[in-house]
Amino acid sequence: MASNWEEFYSSHPQPANLSKNEDLLRDFTARHLNGDTRVVLVTSGGTTVPLEHNTVRFVDNFSAGTRGSASTEYFLDHGYAVVFMHRVKSLQPFSRHFTGQKFLNMLDLIETKDGTSVTVTSENIPKIADVLRKYKSALANGKLLELSFTTVYEYLWLLRSACQILAPLKEKCILYLAAAVSDFYIPPNEMSVHKIASTKPQTISLQLVPKILAPLVSLWVPNAFVVSFKLETNKDLLIDKAREALNKYKHKLVIANMLQNYRQKVTLVTQQSSYVIELTTEQSRIGEEIEMYIVKNIVDKHEEFIADRSGRS
Amino acid sequence: MASNWEEFYSSHPQPANLSKNEDLLRDFTARHLNGDTRVVLVTSGGTTVPLEHNTVRFVDNFSAGTRGSASTEYFLDHGYAVVFMHRVKSLQPFSRHFTGQKFLNMLDLIETKDGTSVTVTSENIPKIADVLRKYKSALANGKLLELSFTTVYEYLWLLRSACQILAPLKEKCILYLAAAVSDFYIPPNEMSVHKIASTKPQTISLQLVPKILAPLVSLWVPNAFVVSFKLETNKDLLIDKAREALNKYKHKLVIANMLQNYRQKVTLVTQQSSYVIELTTEQSRIGEEIEMYIVKNIVDKHEEFIADRSGRS
């Protein structure tokens, strides 16, 4: 069991784009290593588990990427530099406000004899200007690095590399593990090479993905502030499951939430306590996001954590 | 076996938004029933098969929605009215050109003492103006109706309703079934209510989804021009599988494509013949899309089909 995760890595080859992503992570870390800027790695979106080597079908985990992409914006507001590690095509910070046809519906086409121009309609300018200003500032200041994954294998390889490269930031670094990572997978030697024929019913055997929080907390980023998420559908299990994870992996915080109301309510569970954050009806009505309050809380806890470490040393 | 699909519908309750979608389909059909406008129902994107009633995990089918969303634009170019029935968050016509951060990267923020404005950068105006013009025209002329689904159950309910409501258009109507629909499902009584615990390996039993092309062609839209798609990963099976589908369901055309090169090459298979459409390297280089050629071909075949029907009557 101890080397479970090592076996997992050795049986899944490293993704083709990993070294390129590692180069980007090294540049990003170097930029923020000496200085006061705090750093957070946000993971976001679901991971896939292919059923076939030539993948037509896959098992996926529910996650639009709302939590991770919204939280990234709020961390940037607090001055953090963010590595946003997200599922391909899940929501991204800033552009998340203008998905699908929303963006085209905000544009006016102006055709005159002098030529054609395209502008944002006046009623949409305040919102888009605010988003655009923040987005351009994050890029200009080198504060946002976006990396992506699709399968659970790509996720795990990229996560390990990111941890190892960010590790020198020590207590300045938060890991905010909001991605919905598959707990199950199909070993490569049990996968069909081609699309499974739809001629008869099928049985799929799923093995357990090793719990990666164990090496992450104890080996890869032993000095970072690690926050994990727990999503359940049965409220009787939620807090016990969160506490169980804290006892097992010895990290700082679990953000526990229910599928049914994860955008309105979360419970922040630490070794010592638990604390509920819940949007009021009025806060929801005026469009406030719970991620603003979650991130504010994490930033305060991170501040205490850094002060505590400095006091000790 | 004959009533297989009827049992399937009776064991999966109708989606909450179905009547609203049926109203939109009725308005759309009424608008185009008397007149020369031809109509196409385009299905697009993958369908999900939930593993739990409170769904955290699901099986999905590979499809970004490129084929369906691109084809929709080309059908509109040919004067067709389009019902675009797509997976929630898959690519949509027009906005598909500006996904993720692409759109924010095209905008300039201009802040002066007179106020703030946001414009599209000059180098991006030609492309966006062209897309915007077509999008606004399609909406203004009532030529585009967008409906969405997520699960295979929602897809099948919506597809049947759409067929039944579009049926009076007879031979004026094309069904262009580009969605990647699950061949498998889990019967409701075998599904877990809550999120499956990740404490031990799992086995999932998948049953066959009934082949809906059978009632669709023979009962729901017996006079329409029906085009289905066949995606394979093994080229030795591709054409045989397409021919097999045509023999079984008696529709007009199968567009056969390989996962590995579906954006460069397709084979149009009819009862009598098969015909390859393949982009040249030069066509790919200048950004041409294979859907332009596929749709042109289908529109010609639809024209012949209508002429043939009129000749007979």
From TrEMBL, chains A, B:
<feature type="domain" description="DNA/pantothenate metabolism flavoprotein C-terminal">
    <location>
        <begin position="168"/>
        <end position="271"/>
    </location>
</feature>
<dbReference type="GO" id="GO:0015937">
    <property type="term" value="P:coenzyme A biosynthetic process"/>
</dbReference>
<protein>
    <submittedName>
        <fullName>Phosphopantothenate--cysteine ligase</fullName>
    </submittedName>
</protein>
<dbReference type="InterPro" id="IPR035929">
    <property type="entry name" value="CoaB-like_sf"/>
</dbReference>
<dbReference type="InterPro" id="IPR007085">
    <property type="entry name" value="DNA/pantothenate-metab_flavo_C"/>
</dbReference>
<comment type="similarity">
    <text>Belongs to the PPC synthetase family.</text>
</comment>
<dbReference type="GO" id="GO:0003824">
    <property type="term" value="F:catalytic activity"/>
</dbReference>
<keyword id="KW-0436">Ligase</keyword>
<dbReference type="Pfam" id="PF04127">
    <property type="entry name" value="DFP"/>
</dbReference>
